[in-house]
Amino acid sequence: MKKLLTVILILTLLSIPYSVKSAKAETNVRVPVLLYHVVSTNPDPNNLYQFSLTEFKKHMDYLNANGYTTLSIDQYYNIINKKAPMPKKPVMLTFDDCTEDFYTNVYPILRKYHMKAAEFAITNLIDTYGHLTTSQLKTVFYNGIDVENHTTNHLDLTTLTHNQKYAAINNATAKIKSITNKAPLYLAYPYGTYDADSVSILKSLGYKAGFSVSNVLSTDTSNKYGLPRIVITNGDTLNVFEKKLLNGH
Ligand SMILES: [Zn+2]
Q1: Which of 46, 83, 211, 239 is within CB 3.0–4.6 Å of 78 for a Cys-Cys bond?
Q2: Which residues touch 183 (CB under 8 Å, ≥6 apart)?
């Protein structure tokens, strides 16, 4: 009997490392990163990137009612690098171009649900007509919204010289840091386009990641300097939204 117990004990001990290993290998990292632009009470029906506030509310109600966890950008980055556990239903919300509706329409809803999100700002447009002001950006930043880089002027980086690219990224870094006191570590490429030079500039400036546009979910094998975002476009009903959350398209 004692011998049998010893054999069982040895077998159990032997199987522990194996079961831990296989449990880890089964971890399936999949995170949808959603991209919104303008969210308006009166969206232009011919503009794909203007979205109805009424529909936007339905999307956020859906996330809230269905147990989704919205991530900060650092949480997202740690999850896809397997340095943080993934909540059951993770989602990352991103907003581009720092239009003023982010403050007037989007932010109150995010606050209502205690949701996290990131705003990618075009820094030359801050404090210009129809865009977020420095003071609004400070308010959202100090209330948990990440403020990140979308370049100074929103030009397609692949059309610029090295020096122009560097300035578009680096001057925007400085501007955001002057507002939030924190250097941005993530950049969204204008139009989602980038090249090897854009990536090496990001790396040289200490950026952790770059976001592109590609309608798939992020995984632990995603290219960190070409992370996929799922575009939400004008007319995306709740049905389409549910599909995009699950599959990216
Ligand atoms: Zn943009």
Answers
A1: 83
A2: 173, 176, 177, 206
List the domain range (segments joined by +) for residue 89.
30-247
User: Percent of the chain beyond pLDDT 70?
Assistant: 89
Tell me the CA–centroid distance for residue 150 and ligand 1, in Å.
Answer: 7
Output the CA 23–ligand 1 centroid distance in Å: 40
Q: How far is the CA of 5 from the centre of ligand 1 (A)?
A: 66
Number of other residues whose CB lies within 10 A of the CB of residue 103: 20
Identify the pLDDT of residue 3. 55
The answer to whether position 20 is within a domain reads no
In-domain check, residue 6: no
Distance from residue 122's CA to the centre of ligand 1 (Å): 8
What average pLDDT does the segment 81-109 reach? Answer: 97
Cross-strand bridge partners of residue 131: 99
**How far does residue 121's CA lie from ligand 1's centre (Å)?**
8
Q: What is the pLDDT of residues 198-207, one digit of tens each?
A: 999 999 999 9
